Amino acid sequence: MFKVKSSEILIRKRDLEIILQSIPAHQNPKIKLEQYTIPADLAADILFRACHTYGDINGKSVIDLGTGTGRLALGAMMLGAQSVVGIDIDLDSLQTARFNSKRLELEADWLLSDIASLHGLFDTVLMNPPFGTKRPHSDIKFLRAALNIGSVIYSIHKSTTISFLSRWLEDQNAKSETIIETRMPIGHQFKFHTKKQYFVKVHVIRIHRH
Asked: What is the pLDDT of residues 82-99, one digit of tens each?
């Protein structure tokens, strides 16, 4: 299906997107966890920029916080990551990620755990964290965990929170830059949703220490 040879990435962005689309979204999303599956096209865009523009994927140790069904983690493996860990507190999500890891013949480690208990160091952190709408400051919890373990972080946040998060990151001696601005589609998942599909303005930011 794809090949990775030395530092040359042979998989095309469109092919990566197609493969990521085959990885199911959350089948039984949990509102308290704000489980919104990252769209395949956005995941592919983030991964390609991280890999080809910044050199943060190929040959690197990568961890995906709140991996969900594993789209970012598995995409990083397809782009030549040296090692990948996907962590989530939801067993259903991890089982889906593990199944697709085997289906795609990709080796990744899947960890059932709260991110607050993480230790270790990774070259690159990927994450699609909760927006903090239902659980205030859950986005900060993810950013704090990522800063503790990662050299570089890629994270998705609601555009309305970017100014606050940028200031918070500066206080943590970290610098952020927006690499993507887009509208993320969210389907009808929960009872309070009244429309078939919503679009949320988001910023994808790259974070590193000063």
From this structure: 999 999 999 989 999 999
CB 73 within 8 A of CB 46: no
CA distances from 96 to 25, 67, 106, 108 (A): 9, 11, 14, 13
Whether 45 is in a domain gets the answer: yes
82 Cβ neighbours under 8 A, 6+ residues apart: 59, 60, 61, 62
118 domain-assigned: yes
In a domain, 28, yes or no: no
Q: Please name which of 123, 106, 112, 116 lies closest in space to residue 90, comparing C-alpha atoms.
A: 112
Helix (H, G, I), strand (E, B) or coil at 52: helix
pTM: 0.89
Indicate whether 124 belongs to any domain: yes
